[in-house]
Amino acid sequence: MPFDLLSPAVTAALVESLKQTAFMVSVAAVLSTLLGLPLGILLVVTAPGHIAERPAVNRVVGTVVNLVRSTPFIIMMVAIIPFTRLVVGTTVGTAAAIVPLTLAITPLFARLAETAMREVDRGVIEAAEAIGASPWEIVVKVLVPEALPGIVAGVTVALVSLIGYSTMAGTVGGGGLGDLGVRYGYQRFMPEVMVAVVVVLVVLVQAVQIVGDAVARAVNHRIARRRRGGV
């Protein structure tokens, strides 16, 4: 469907909805990364046999993460309405959608970061312990840097998931491309708008995936050069 079939008003609405989606996704991505990475680290280091073994803590945190991850996003949005209102003062609009988006993606990213850090060579960690590194130093100087390519890949997966979730948020008053598709494409019987929304979402996801893969490769190459004694 060529975009010149859209009226100027609808085109302007499409651009505005794209801005809203970009805002929701970017803010939620930053917040979920800041919350999810420490959570992932906690899941790794408190696991049996790791540097700060705390089986009870690991089980509790893991259970909470799994419970949140298993909750359908649309149900979570409704369930945390009082919390959303408490945080942002409203339950509709892009600002309100950021709250459930962040809560939904944080445990996902935590598990992805955990998986990446579990793949770090145990010998590297043991070498750091042998020279007297503290658990905090091991996390900051060994665990996270060595797992960085996997963590970057996890951020990419989280971003793609956020884009999908943001469209669902739009259907219940969150704004963005999902809201536009429902209001124009469904309620006003304008299938060309729905197609335009889908095209924009596909392009957005592809762009995120390409950039994320490129950054992960670049980080991986840098780590490989460092291991070989390069710069």
Automatic annotation (TrEMBL):
Biological process according to GO = D-methionine transmembrane transport
Gene3D superfamilies (UniProt xref): MetI-like
What SUPFAM superfamilies does the entry give? Answer: MetI-like (SSF161098)
Q: Which residues cross the membrane?
A: 20-45, 57-81, 87-110, 151-173, 193-219
Q: How does the protein associate with the membrane?
A: Multi-pass membrane protein
The terms describing its cellular component in GO are: plasma membrane
Q: Which domain of life is it from?
A: Bacteria
Q: Where is the ABC transmembrane type-1 domain?
A: 18-212
The protein's UniProt keywords, in alphabetical order, are: Cell membrane, Membrane, Transmembrane, Transmembrane helix, Transport
Fetch the InterPro entries from UniProt.
AA_ABC_Transporter_Permease (IPR051322), MetI-like (IPR000515), MetI-like_sf (IPR035906)
| Cell compartments where the protein resides | Cell membrane
Tell me which NCBIfam families the record gives: PRK10782.1
Protein family: Belongs to the binding-protein-dependent transport system permease family. CysTW subfamily.
The record ties this protein, via PANTHER family, to: ABC TRANSPORTER PERMEASE, D-METHIONINE TRANSPORT SYSTEM PERMEASE PROTEIN METI-RELATED
Q: What is this protein called?
A: ABC transporter permease
**Species for this entry:** Siculibacillus lacustris
